[in-house]
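Check my protein:
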Amino acid sequence: MDVRLRPVTAGDLAMFERFAVEPGLVGLDWGGFRDAQEPARRFAKDGYLGPDGGRLIVEAEDAATGFVSWTAKQYGGVAGCWEIGIALLPEWRGQGIGWRAQDMLCEYLFTYTPVQRIEAGTHPENTAEQKSLEKAGFRLEGVLRSVEFRAGQWRDGRLYSRLRDD
């Protein structure tokens, strides 16, 4: 399947609004209702291409299937890393789009930014995303205990990374 990444356009904002207000649309990542107007404000600010992070639309079969995102993260010293994420619409999951999009995003970030490390987290029960990250060249680093409050309780996460020279 041909998968592409492209910049966000005004026509994509309706999809972002759906992710903010439709329970379960993002699967295990649903964290409650969010401001549905925030996507339009962010798009007006920088088109989702800012110095500290952004989003690109994932396309397959000439349709917007979801988006990938990246956010700057700092551990210490002067060098930072990117934390990436992906959200695909339910009808596009399980078709090999996710790992391809995440791999393409890593290649994009390694080409156009000097970052050495890209990381991604997922839920221990999300085996599909774990496989997707591994296909995209990520390695499991470990379990982060009680890292996320979701569905009324603290939950563990899994941390993966991909280095420029992997």
